[in-house]
Amino acid sequence: MARGNARHAMALDEAMIIAGIGTRKGVDAAEVVALIERALAEARIDAAQLSAIATAAGKADEPGIVAAAAQLGLRLLPMSNEAMQAGEGGVTDSAGSARLFGVCSVSEASALAAAGQGSVLILPRIKSASATCALAKAATVELRGQTHGSDPIHRALRQNGNPQ
User: Is 118 left (phi over 0), alpha (psi -120 to 50) or beta?
Assistant: First the structure.
């Protein structure tokens, strides 16, 4: 599933898919990659459709998540607690996520926040031993006439302090 470079553009008929990731401290990259691959298989989504990986800003420096994103050739989008809470719409309740981040599930909330307003959860949280993964699909966006950086990924980056 590894790709040579991260995808930033999408075709007009292609929806942006975000994998939200939650983990325990010290998770291994192989476990995160395997869980993302399992999520894509369960949702019957081709790996080439995955646009980015999102997680809580407080987990964005977790070596296993960083390495998984690099291995898959995907951009890692750190989501602030505020962005995750604003994009809340998950279906899973995790006491740990609620206590630490104020959301029902880090994986669901980060995927929905990164996918942007109007996004939908297409695969609720699934679990492995030390990680969770959920998939969200961005609302259909008319790309004609947009200026560079107005797509959901660039909006998410700006919201979280990255001006790219």
Answer: left
Distances (CA, A) of 90 to 42, 45, 112, 142: 18, 20, 8, 25
* Listed residue (134, 132, 103) closest to 120, CA to CA: 134
Domains and their CATH numbers in the chain:
17-159 (3.30.420.180)
Using alpha carbons, select from 7, 16, 34 the residue that is nearest to residue 111: 16
Using only C-alpha atoms, the chain has a radius of gyration, in whole angstroms, of 14
| Each residue's pLDDT tens digit, 54-79 | 999 999 999 999 999 999 999 999 99
Residue at token pair 């995808």: 7
* Contacts of 51 by beta carbon, 8 Å cutoff, 6+ apart: 7, 10, 16, 17, 18, 74, 75, 153
Nearest residue to 119 (alpha-carbon basis) of 83, 148, 145: 83
Residue with tokens 């909330």: 109
Residue 134, classified by CB atoms within 10 Å of its CB into exposed (0-12), middle (13-18) or buried (19+), is: buried
Global confidence as pTM: 0.77
The two three-digit tokens of residue 98, written as one number: 């609620």
User: Tokens for 138?
Assistant: 């961005």
